[in-house]
Amino acid sequence: MDPLRCLPGVNYGEIIGTSVRIAWHNRHLWFFGLFAGAGFNVPLPNGGGNFDIKGPDRADAAVPWSSLAQGGAPSAGLLVAIGVGVLVIVLALIALSLVSQGALTESVAAIDRGGQRSFRTAWQAGTRRFWRLLGLAALFLAIFLAAVIVIGIPLAAIVYGVFTATDALEPRIVVGVLAGLIALAALLILVIPFPIVGQLALRELVLGEQQSVAAFRSGLALFRANVGKGLLLWLIQVGIGLGLAIAVVIAALVVGLVLALPGIGLIAGGLQTAAIVAWVIAGVIFVALLLVVLGAVGTFSHAYWTIAYLRLRPLGSAATHIA
Predict the structure, then answer these.
(1) 88-105 mean pLDDT
(2) Whole-angstrom Cα distance, residue 285 to residue 280?
(3) Is 99:122 a contact under the CB 8 Å cutoff?
(4) Residue 133 CB: number of other CB atoms within 10 A?
(5) In this structure, what are the phi and psi dihedrals at residue 8, rounded to the nearest 5 degrees?
(6) Mean pLDDT to the nearest integer, 244-258
(7) pLDDT of residue 235
(8) What is the three-class DSSP state of 44?
(9) Residue 321: CB atoms within 10 Å
(10) How far is CA 264 from CA 21, 40, 268, 271, 288, in A?
């Protein structure tokens, strides 16, 4: 008996195996997995410029970076330029993330049903649903912030009022413990069930062609009809994620050491310039390999929830149908 087939109607081992197979045999989807799945990072701009170690003359004073060379504060124009650059990068990454989520969801579902998806068709599937995906993301953000405000502000006000009104230790402890428990319960709801509903709602939007609010309602209804299965799917993904994280860290250390060895040897031979060149090349190779791995892991992670949704949806179709 499959140990992962713990609840009737869902074969968890099959979900994992299908997700692995789809991710491995459709490597063109790894680009989308890099932005939609695990390991998504926002790169920050690097500060740089030409510094005159002899000290700037009057011509250098017009260069924004010259103030940094002297340890002075950067100019307002430079700060604005950096801020705009960071904002553009963040917005571009958000857009790529939304497109990638739509592309992966539609592609994985089509492949699971025996179809084929190229990079172009996957990209088109993501861009076609971009605005509805943005609406769903905004809806979840608004719900999250509203929950934090509705729960956090009253709790903070009660704790502040008690601590201000009395110096007695007992009421402070009681109120502090109760507030902490309520905050912990709310946090657990926001950290576990809320993201699961988000995963299901995303699939309702993309595969069910629903609007943002309807997709949220359908995702919530599907989760309520499959609470045990949804939580177990989340626990399995957490376990797989921890295992993959440990494996990636160990592999990164080993590969990084191997790539660094030529540079270390060159340093030992007194060839500093050649060692720097070797380390730069090694760094480029290391980053490229890391991005490939993160793309593959992200594709698997996203495929996992899409396959899970496809296995859950028929089981709760009557409960999740919303006119």
Answers:
(1) 93
(2) 9
(3) no
(4) 25
(5) -60, 140
(6) 93
(7) 94
(8) coil
(9) 10
(10) 39, 31, 6, 10, 21
- What pLDDT sits at residue 72? 58
38 in Cβ contact with 238 (< 8 Å): no
Helical residues (DSSP H) of the chain, grouped into ranges: 12-25, 30-36, 64-69, 76-112, 119-128, 130-165, 169-191, 193-207, 212-225, 227-268, 272-312, 317-320
Type of residue at 135: G
Which of 31-40, 107-116, 171-180 is predicted with the least confidence, judged by mean pLDDT? 31-40
- Please check whether residue 37 is in contact with residue 23, taking contact to mean a CB–CB distance below 8 angstroms: no
Q: Output the six-digit token pair for 14.
A: 């099959």
Q: How far apart are CA 96 and CA 90, in angstroms?
A: 10
Q: CA 32, CA 297: separation in Å to the nearest integer?
A: 11
Q: What is the pTM of this model?
A: 0.77
Q: What is the mean pLDDT of residues 179-202?
A: 88
Hunting for tokens 């605005």 — which residue is that?
131
